[in-house]
Design a protein that fits this description.
Layout (H helix, E strand, L loop, with lengths): L2 H12 L12 E3 L1 H9 L5 E7 L4 H17 L4 E7 L3 H15 L6 E3 L4 H8 L9 E5 L5 E6 L4 H13 L2
Parallel strand pairs: 1-4, 2-3, 3-4
Antiparallel strand pairs: 2-5, 5-6
Helix pairs in contact: 2-5, 3-6
């Protein structure tokens, strides 16, 4: 076998579909658009999680949120992740973090003009502490606000009660 044939064979064997990038740069969104997505969610319960790349508890709870989204996908439950990182970080570090966690769905980055506008726009009772998760029922009504890092079990119990109508 010639050296050219070996190189060609090796190239064919090592080729395959390009490695899929699980996550693109998060889409910019403001608080009004988030609330519109929740209200217009086709009768889905929605968990909106607000996080940042520098927030260790945020990154720690995210695998559980991905797991939750997959578990309840066929039960009309959606999970929306919204980063509060600046646009430079959102374009570079945030996609790497999301890829490493296995996020395989569209995520968002806050683009309100001020932090205060974003915070009070989502919920005037929220201090802005991260992570923060807002659970909305199928009618788009806020039913729970969870601030601080939560476990998968906590999220699952809360969502399960909502799905069951408790």
């Amino acid at each position: 076998m010639s050296i050219l044939a070996i190189i060609s064979l090796n190239a064919v064997l090592s080729c395959g579909p390009p490695k899929r990038n699980l996550h693109q740069v998060p889409q910019k969104i403001d608080h009004d658009a988030i609330l519109e997505m929740v209200r217009d969610g086709h009768h889905k319960a929605t968990l909106v999680n607000v996080w940042a790349s520098w927030c260790e508890p945020c990154r720690k709870e995210m695998p559980g949120l991905v797991r939750l989204r997959h578990k309840y996908a066929d039960q009309n439950v959606d999970v929306i992740l919204v980063s509060t990182d600046d646009s430079a970080t959102a374009a570079t570090l945030v996609p790497r973090i999301l890829d490493s966690i296995g996020v395989d769905f569209q995520t968002y980055v806050d683009c309100d003009s001020t932090d205060e506008e974003f915070i009070t726009g989502l919920n005037p009772e929220w201090s802005g502490a991260l992570p923060a998760s807002f659970l909305y029922d199928r009618d788009g009504k806020l039913v729970d606000m969870m601030v601080g890092g939560k476990s998968y079990d906590t999220f699952e119990e809360t969502v399960s009660k909502l799905v069951k109508g408790e």
